[in-house]
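Risk mitigation, structural track. In case the binding assays with nicotinamide-adenine-dinucleotide fail to produce interpretable data, a predicted complex structure has been prepared as a fallback.
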Amino acid sequence: MAGRLQGKRAFVTAAGQGIGRATALAFAREGATVIATDLHAEKLDGLAGEGIGVMPLDVLDDAALTTAIQAAGPFDILFNCAGFVHQNTAETCTDEDWDFAFRLNVRATWKGIQAAIPGMLERGGGSIINMSSGAGSIKGAPNRFVYGTTKAAVIGITKSVAADYVAKGIRCNAICPGTVDTPSLGDRIAANATAAGGLDQARAAFVARQAMGRLGNAEEIAMLAVWLASDEAGFVTGQPIVIDGGWTL
Ligand code: NAD
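Fallback model:
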């Protein structure tokens, strides 16, 4: 049986681990031709064996991002997955945190879209999927000041792009996860361990936020990305789609 993304070409950022990697693999399983990119080339190891094209790419480098998408394109699917989670408040956020979060979580999302749209128009349409979060405009999360601010901006980008291209066959949606068990979550758990009284306690605090009593896994998010990328979601655009184990209930 043909996969749901048969004949489609997909570009994925931050595909070295976590949600991006799981999604690149899921896209390929569904029949897409996939280019998987990441800042750390070594993290892409193993993907080529799955028939995925791999490319080291720092999405903070506007020219490199634009060139990568233009040179390897045109694409039907763009998954802007790269992002970083600062843990801070309006008081503790530094100028560096603010600038970095906006460059990575917001500007790189825009630059990817800007580079991908001409190719999508050439192919008669496409699906842009942006990585937002439940934290931001859907829920105020403690100690996620600049993170939530940037992820709210990603929803703004999503709706704006959806409105501008809805009549031209390009859909644009955002995925808004709760807490997902990925390598960078391990870093956040470690960073909170002292205050929480240990690693187990810090992990338990993340789990306790989820009404279902468990963390999400990257494959669950990847399956939502597959659906949004597919023609099955052809009537869906401009939507922040929450997938969060009940965190924002
Ligand atoms: P992760 O944070 O574990 O991994 C991030 C990947 O991004 C790494 O492979 C890293 O090398 C790459 N990367 C970092 N800087 C980069 C850059 N400048 N250019 C290209 N690649 C770069 O992965 P994750 O936890 O799956 O997070 C992926 C996205 O999902 C992020 O945007 C994050 O904000 C979002 N998200 C995650 C969670 C969660 O709980 N894990 C929840 C909501 C949203």
